[in-house]
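[Meeting: bench + compute handoff]

Bench side (C.D.) handed over the final construct sequence. Compute side (W.E.) agreed to return the predicted structure before the next meeting so the bench team could plan truncations. Sequence as handed over:
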Amino acid sequence: MNINTLRYGWGVKHVLLILLLVAAAIFATLTQWLDILNIAMKDEESSHIFLVIPIAVWLVWIRRIRFRRCPPRASWVGPLMIFAGFCLAKFSMSESVQFQAGLHGGAVLMLIGAITTVVGMQVIANFIPAVLLLGLLVPIPGNLRLAIAGPLQNATARVTTTVLETMGFYVERSGNLVNINDMPIAVAEACNGMRMVFALVLVSYAFAFTVPLRNSVRLLILLLSPVAAIICNVFRLVPTVLLYGYAPTDIADSFHDIAGWLMLPVAFLMLVGTTRALRWALVPTYRFTLATQSS
């Protein structure tokens, strides 16, 4: 294939330029990217980072027909984004600031700027759901995670206790501590939901922008994703608490780890059920027929 062969305005040269600039942007901020990878591998509450790139690629793929109507045009906005990302990273690493999220955010912004430089703002606008999703490559700061985890722990412990009592088990709860069969189980340790909440937000986001839903329905799904996280946490925590109370600890630990990932398909089925319930209630749900899915 000739390097200048075009299809809908796209050529091999555009792909090569994107790869070259992306590689340069990653190399220039390699320390930050290695830090993001290290956090994702070692911190279970940041493991959702591994889902960001596959979902972003998927959101681009299902919208691939849009490449026909938005040919690439080099844009000066890209270099501005690269410069802004560089300044953000430099500012965040100064001794007086030391803002880790700024360091990581600067690296991600430089990556987006590298792509924008080649393809232009029209392409970015047409694939904005995938572009915005890249923001979740930035590990969530600890203070923000604690602000989310606290209410999530309380809600999860309260609902789990109610479910177990309804099932006939004698359970005591003190704050985030659930006691069953004289075995105290800390919700913060057993299942605080943080490792799931962002993964479930990603699942909700992917579903909302894969199916051609109305914007109001998309917003509803995204707003309900924390509620879905609590429900899925309760689905996982109820049998986990019972296993910790009546079975060997290693069995409970294994079940807890496996059940966490099983909650992702459960969350997906909940989203499908939500859209069907809206349709059953005659609430306008889809923007157009599913046969013309290119939202």
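W.E. noted at the follow-up: The longest helix spans residues 215-246. C.D. will use this when planning the next construct.
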